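Private note to self, pasted from the team thread so I don't lose it. Backbone tokens:
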């Protein structure tokens, strides 16, 4: 073999070796790319799985029953049962609404969730008024307060008669009386400081009124409370009417009682008139009469007519 031939073969071998090295060097980046691609695919699948799980929870909550179960589990151990004491119910509702707000409980689920925490009697009442449907939370709250007869006057009474229990802290007591005051002012539709001022004055006026006058004013109040000026007007009219209807004393009867003293009972007569006892003319005799006596004449079945007639001493003989 010539020198040129051997040189050519050598060059070809070197070229083949360089080509194989290039191929091997190119294979490394391709494998890295495949690994990176697989990593990206796995990440995408993980994100898709998490998204599907989140959508599944939302879909489960959107099915009604699933939503109620979900929120009921979250609130278990947080919501307390409705208290037996009527005075504590307003504070309990306040706590319920705070928890609903903190846990972002949807409005259409609140009524179903709260049913399990009502007393047995109240659950029966709500079921009776629901006509087969579950009432909303505001309607349940309104029905419970109505059944307990927690009127504006009752809120006011509970507020002023509230006392701290030994088992509660001062902060708990503060929360309770704040709730009672808020319920009272809300039931009276207090929106401004002027409204609150009129309400306090009106309450004070009714507190110092005589019982009959206060009852008359209370009968006049319906859904809206009366302003102080209207209360004063009604009280004045009522007491003026009472003064006009009082029967006047008969001056004749009073003066005659002072002149003659106590009179003896007069026996009834079949003729319809009652006469004085007979007198024997002796002024010291117990039956002696020389001035006047009362004469009672029957008018109708039960009514009698009172008159005065002089009795001559000769009639006693």
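Design output:
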């Amino acid at each position: 073999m010539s020198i040129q031939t051997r040189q050519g073969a050598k060059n070809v071998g070197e070229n083949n070796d360089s080509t194989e090295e290039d191929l091997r060097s190119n294979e490394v980046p391709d494998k890295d790319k495949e690994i990176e691609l697989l990593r990206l695919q796995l990440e995408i699948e993980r994100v898709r799985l998490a998204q599907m799980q989140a959508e599944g929870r939302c879909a489960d909550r959107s099915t009604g029953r699933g939503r109620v179960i979900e929120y009921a589990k979250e609130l278990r151990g947080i919501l307390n049962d409705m208290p037996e004491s009527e005075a504590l119910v307003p504070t309990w509702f306040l706590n319920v609404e705070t928890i609903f707000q903190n846990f972002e409980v949807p409005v259409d689920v609140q009524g179903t969730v709260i049913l399990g925490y009502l007393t047995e009697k109240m659950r029966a009442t709500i079921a009776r008024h629901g006509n087969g449907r579950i009432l909303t939370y505001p309607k349940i709250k309104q029905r419970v307060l109505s059944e307990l007869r927690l009127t504006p006057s009752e809120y006011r009474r509970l507020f002023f008669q509230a006392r701290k229990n030994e088992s509660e802290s001062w902060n708990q007591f503060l929360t309770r009386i704040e709730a009672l005051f808020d319920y009272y002012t809300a039931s009276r539709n207090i929106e401004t400081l002027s409204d609150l001022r009129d309400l306090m004055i009106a309450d004070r006026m009714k507190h110092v009124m005589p019982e009959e006058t206060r009852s008359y004013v209370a009968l006049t109040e319906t859904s809206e409370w009366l302003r102080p000026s209207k209360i004063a007007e009604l009280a004045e009219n009522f007491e003026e009417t009472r003064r006009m209807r009082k029967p006047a004393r008969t001056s004749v009867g009073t003066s005659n009682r002072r002149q003659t003293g106590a009179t003896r009972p007069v026996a009834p007569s079949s003729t319809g008139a009652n006469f004085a006892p007979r007198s024997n003319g002796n002024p010291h005799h117990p039956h002696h009469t020389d001035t006047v006596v009362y004469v009672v004449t029957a008018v109708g079945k039960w009514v009698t007519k009172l008159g005065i007639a002089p009795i001559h001493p000769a009639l006693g003989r």
